[in-house]
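S.,

Sequence below, as promised.
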Amino acid sequence: MTREDAAALDEHDPLAPLAEEFHHPLDPAGRRAIYLCGHSLGLQPRAATACVEQELAAWRDRGVLGHHEGTRPWIRYHERFAGPLADLCGAMPTEVVAMNSLTVNLHLMLVSFFRPTPTRNRILIEQPAFPSDRYAVASQLAFHGLETQAHLVEVAPRPGEGCLRTEDLVAAIERNRERLALVLLPGVQYLTGQCLEVAPIVAAAHAAGARIGLDLAHAIGNTPLRLHDWNVDFAVWCSYKYLNGGPGAIGGCFVHERHAHRVDLPRFAGWWGHDPETRFAMPAKFVPIPGAQGWQLSNPPVLAAAPLLASLELFQRAGFQRLREKSLALTAFLRRSLDDTLPLERFEILTPREPAAHGCQISLRLRSGGRRAFERLLTAGVVADWREPDVLRLAPTPAYNSFRDVRQAVIALADAVRS
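The prediction came back faster than expected:
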């Protein structure tokens, strides 16, 4: 793909002006870096500064009265996220809540939805799962006195393949149907960028008598989601990747509507999950809010949540469907550019080619000298990331990346590989 190809695509891109709504890092030469790392940490929306400063001003000027006064009173701050997050999740507003961090939310969900019995006590995950997910699952098993080796089912890609197969996940669920309590899988697999086919996996899990949850860290704001229609029991996510909420930003949680009034579900309760009509009466008995809000523990960290408001406004302005269309065009352009530019014997693309099977991220296996090539990329002003032993992850993000970015990154990568 040529410079002229990239220029023509950028010229006809209706979302191109959106890139100016973000701050872009500089490269070692002081120029705008080519940032292809939204799968790890999204760029800062320019409006984030004002959102945070408004809350700092409310704290400065009103003190505790900021909970009830001002433009965005803190007492109901979390409610501002419900509509935009529901749109991105394919959910009802009552099914989502912004709270805590991803792994805290995962533990809270496991308390409620992993209820092992003497005969049904296994959890199924993918291999390799993101380490934090595996740690959380293993620690929950240990909490219930169960050994990881006997009670954790891990499904890996077939020998010689990089991605999971839906039929293998379904087959593993069916093999363990008498013992399986929970299935926990990613919406998008962190290492390969594979977008899983959720609907048949959910159907298989429920047919086996198990519950199913999703880790959407790499999926929300990246790929189309239909959590309510898929009938997923729960999902969790962070907001600092494609949602551009900033490092340590507030996370989120989905709980399906059919669990909204399940007061019989055990949970670790906190006062912000209590019925707001009587919350400040300080009753001894916990009465959960129906829906996902009922799993809240404490009032939200306003300063860690404010930047997310700026990003979600951009999502709503751009429209997710248009962002998705550009994302697919960017990744297709990236694939063609890699095929045209890099020596075929030096790399392998792990991410599936089918549009429905991937998001922004393209993962490459570099067959030799990969770590050195990655370091040369950084020196050349291309920000990607590296996963040992041989995987380079590139994520052209439609909100702030251009086709020119992709072309320049591939040229820099080809130079780095040849060097």
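The chain has a mean pLDDT of 96.

Coffee later?
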